[in-house]
């Protein structure tokens, strides 16, 4: 969408279907060029001045229509579409898709196997908490995980609400084998900000890079 006009994705915005399709086509070209098999299909914002409850039905219907179209396009390219709930308490008060429950219900209505849940644990904690149960419940739908500490959105080992060593071990026990996106703002530089990962590997008996010391 048009970021300068305040848009943050278009998939659930009524009347913007043509622009959504154009954006999707461009995103597929970029994804092909860099070899990325997943594309985040951003829902977009409730129109400025509109009552969320009053427009929810029309926005969900638009979202479902666009997601089905996107799923068919992405299936031809062997790609996965992702939808991400973004909290409306801190990050974006007008974003349409806010909770994993809402996302799961919409994905069920869309009914396409190549559409998955992009679960950012930062947003999930702010909106609902109950992370262990939510990860277990929605695990079959998850196509990508993102992490950041709450509430500062910094490194996982920065002060905050979330116990990331526990969460990462839970993901391993559930059988998650995908990437984990570090969607946080480092307090310092990038290398310094990745110190938590080196510490985690060492606590798990691994070399830097995730290789087992026993295997070495």
Automatic annotation (TrEMBL):
It comes from the Eukaryota. Residues 9-199 form the Xylose isomerase-like TIM barrel domain. Transmembrane segments: none annotated. GO terms for molecular function: hydroxypyruvate isomerase activity. The keyword Transport does not apply. The keyword Isomerase applies. It holds the Pfam family AP_endonuc_2. One of its GO terms (biological process) is glyoxylate metabolic process. Keywords: Isomerase. PANTHER family: HYDROXYPYRUVATE ISOMERASE-RELATED, ISOMERASE. This is HYI isomerase.
């Amino acid at each position: 969408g048009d970021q300068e006009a305040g848009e943050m994705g278009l998939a659930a915005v009524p009347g913007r279907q043509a622009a959504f399709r154009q954006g999707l086509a461009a995103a597929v070209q970029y994804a092909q060029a860099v070899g990325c098999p997943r594309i985040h299909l951003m829902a977009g914002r409730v129109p400025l001045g509109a009552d969320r409850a009053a427009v929810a039905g029309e926005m969900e219907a638009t979202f479902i229509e666009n997601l089905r179209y996107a799923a068919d396009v992405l299936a031809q390219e062997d790609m996965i579409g992702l939808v991400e709930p973004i909290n409306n308490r801190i990050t974006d008060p007008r974003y349409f898709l806010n909770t994993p429950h809402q996302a799961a219900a919409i994905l069920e209505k869309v009914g396409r196997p190549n559409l998955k849940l992009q679960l950012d644990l930062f947003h999930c904690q702010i909106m609902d908490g109950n992370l262990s149960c939510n990860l277990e419940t929605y695990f079959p739908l998850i196509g990508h995980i993102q992490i950041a500490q709450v509430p500062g959105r910094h490194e996982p080992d920065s002060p905050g609400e979330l116990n990331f060593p526990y969460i990462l071990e839970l993901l391993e026990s559930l059988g998650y084998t995908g990437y984990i996106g570090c969607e946080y703002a480092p307090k310092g530089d990038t290398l310094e900000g990745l110190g938590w990962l080196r510490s985690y590997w060492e606590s798990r008996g691994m070399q830097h890079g995730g290789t087992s010391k026993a295997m070495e």
